């Protein structure tokens, strides 16, 4: 069967976006992995499916699959691309779009300069909500990994994140420590692992080893989790510029348990295509 798709990216975190409002397809985990292959398929970090809402108060339903075929709860860069996609394809003419995610909702606002702001909802900090194995809640936990102790903050932005504060992102052990922590037994659902260098109270550098995708050029939920972790540790202010390998995101969080994390950044279309599945 021939399927229409759009290749998009948010700061180099790249996506295959498929409209399931006007087309019907079913994709197995194995098929997602094949499509994600950068040599034998289309190549992407995540597959985004645009579906009609199940809740009439929402505009769309948003489903996300990692390159390894696993379905995930949230994707910040994907959410911005989602907003541009539904507007460019004239599936809506709204500037403010409400989407259902696997475990919540996100509100997307498209500005006249085409930047997209995502209301990511409030972070979850209780260990069992992340999920993370710990007796009680703390801003920093010590985790044993291959005979070393690593200080890590844990945050759920709908999906699980661990955040380390390190001296220099250029020399951070993202490719070695990233996969070990991603699959660590204290993260029963695995986790995305961020390595954050503090430049000032309003500016950080960040690299993220993503669950199910490896290191990406940017991770939106990772940027939000890093700012929340920095706020919990008392290092960061409310408004923070996050420099990722693919570019910058602006993230703000007032710090209250019900306060949403707001993230603003770009979204771009690379090409339109059709593929036999
Ligand atoms: N790239 C994303 C996050 C995608 C999901 C993540 N890999 C997970 O498994 O939770 C972003 O921009 O947030």
Automatic annotation (TrEMBL):
Subcellular location: Cytoplasm
Pfam families, sorted: DAP_epimerase
GO molecular function, one term: diaminopimelate epimerase activity
One Gene Ontology cellular component: cytosol
GO biological process: lysine biosynthetic process via diaminopimelate
Keyword Isomerase: yes
Alphabetized HAMAP family for the sequence: DAP_epimerase
Record-stated family: Belongs to the diaminopimelate epimerase family.
Name of this chain's protein: Diaminopimelate epimerase
This protein's encoding gene: dapF
């Amino acid at each position: 069967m021939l399927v229409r798709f759009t290749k998009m990216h948010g700061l180099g975190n790249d996506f295959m976006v498929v409209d399931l409002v006007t087309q019907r397809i079913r994709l197995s985990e194995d098929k997602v992995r094949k499509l994600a292959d950068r040599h034998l398929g289309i190549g992407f970090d995540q597959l985004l499916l645009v579906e009609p809402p199940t809740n009439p108060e929402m505009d769309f339903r948003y489903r996300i699959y990692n390159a390894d075929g696993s379905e995930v709860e949230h994707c910040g860069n994907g959410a911005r691309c989602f907003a541009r996609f539904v507007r460019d394809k004239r599936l809506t003419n709204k500037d403010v779009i409400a989407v259902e995610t696997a475990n919540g909702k996100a509100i997307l606002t498209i500005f006249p300069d085409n930047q997209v702001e995502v209301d990511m909802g409030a972070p979850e900090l209780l260990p069992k909500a992340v999920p993370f194995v710990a007796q009680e809640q703390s801003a920093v936990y010590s985790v044993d990994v291959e005979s070393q102790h690593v200080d890590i903050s844990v945050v759920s932005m709908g999906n699980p994140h661990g955040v380390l504060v390190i001296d220099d992102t250029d020399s951070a052990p993202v490719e070695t420590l990233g996969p070990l922590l991603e699959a660590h037994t204290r993260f029963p659902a695995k986790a995305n692992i961020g390595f954050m260098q503090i430049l000032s109270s309003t500016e950080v550098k960040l690299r993220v080893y993503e669950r199910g995708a490896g290191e990406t050029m940017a991770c939106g939920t990772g940027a939000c989790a890093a700012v929340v972790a920095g706020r919990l540790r008392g290092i960061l202010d409310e408004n923070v510029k996050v420099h990722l390998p693919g570019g910058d995101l602006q993230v703000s969080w007032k710090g209250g348990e019900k306060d949403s994390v707001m993230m603003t950044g770009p979204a771009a279309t690379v090409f339109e295509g059709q593929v036999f599945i």
